[in-house]
Design brief:
The chain has three domains: 66 residues, no CATH class; 86 residues, no CATH class; 84 residues, no CATH class. The protein is mainly alpha-helical and 289 residues long. The protein has a two-stranded antiparallel sheet with strand order 1-2. A two-stranded antiparallel sheet has the order 3-4. The longest helix has 13 residues.
Length: 289
């Protein structure tokens, strides 16, 4: 193939092979080929397919149950095909209470994003040095790639969209001072660690302690987390009903007249009234799960 293209103009090669001239990236079997899966624009074809399947006119003719079935069939199937070939960026899992509990431990630096992962000081560098991140050209580079380019003074890793101003140069000097004592470990892999227990790792108990230590947020703020795109739909619906006390506890069933008021005792036999607060927090049996 290469000899044919080297010896003939492109038009002659296309005529000989009876093919079309394409460009990278392109779609093959519904998958983008030749792009960088770490960039958000790489996933636009997948997002467009999901958006087309969830067109507004379809929901007009479906019941609430039909809409749930449509959402489940689309959101649990279309992206699985693409994710079986490519690794999606995990930015959506960071931030909030979970982002405060995890830290990236750098080994060889090949799996850690230089700007967006919390690998230095516990805070992503794009947050700590937001001005420099906005001006940086290599926003998606890993720590290993920035290391190879050279992040010391005058290194090729520092490529900007324009010349830095004086106060931005001072910020860059502060940035480079943090990197002076850092070295890569070629024999170790990058890994996520749980800050509350770096030895044993993540646990539900540790996450519960982290959540209960936070001040109670309004429902409007919590709704952004409940309906997050990474949360399964059935979990979002359950959490939404839980926070609004819409679960069929015995207390709610008695209010609706479905059961008699005398039958509101907790199913565990503890003698307390079965409310949402009791079942999930104060119950001696269910509350400890």
């Amino acid at each position: 193939m290469r000899h044919i293209l080297d010896g003939q103009p492109r038009g002659s090669a296309v005529s000989t092979l009876r093919c079309k001239v394409g460009k990278v990236s392109f779609l093959y079997l519904g998958l983008p080929i030749g792009g960088d899966p770490r960039r958000l624009d790489f996933w636009e074809p997948v997002l467009n397919r999901i958006q087309n399947r969830l067109s507004w006119w379809k929901s007009r003719f479906l019941s609430f149950g039909g809409r749930l079935v449509l959402l489940q069939s689309v959101l649990t199937s279309l992206h699985v095909y693409a994710l079986s070939f490519f690794k999606a960026p995990s930015d959506g899992l960071r931030g909030g209470w979970f982002g405060e509990g995890v830290l990236k431990k750098v080994g060889d630096g090949t799996e850690t994003f230089f700007w967006t992962d919390p690998w230095l000081g516990g805070t992503p560098l794009c947050v700590r040095f937001g001005r420099l991140f906005d001006l940086a050209v290599h926003k998606s580079n890993t720590v290993a790639e920035m290391w190879s380019l050279g992040w010391d003074t005058g290194g090729e890793a520092w490529e900007w969209r324009r010349q830095l101003w004086a106060w931005e140069e001072e910020m860059l000097g502060e940035y480079q001072a943090l990197l002076l004592d850092f070295t890569l470990q070629a024999q170790s892999l990058d890994m996520w660690t749980w800050r509350l227990d770096p030895v044993s790792g993540y646990s539900v108990r540790g996450a519960d302690q982290l959540l209960t230590s936070h001040p109670i947020e309004p429902l409007d703020v919590a709704s952004d987390l409940i309906w997050h795109k990474q949360v399964p739909l059935k979990v979002s619906i359950f959490a939404w009903r839980l926070l609004r006390d819409r679960l069929p506890t015995k207390s709610n069933l008695a209010i609706r007249g479905i059961i008699i008021p005398e039958a509101q005792s907790c199913v565990t036999g503890c003698g307390e009234m079965e409310t949402t607060q009791h079942l999930f927090i104060s119950c001696s049996i269910f509350g400890s799960l």
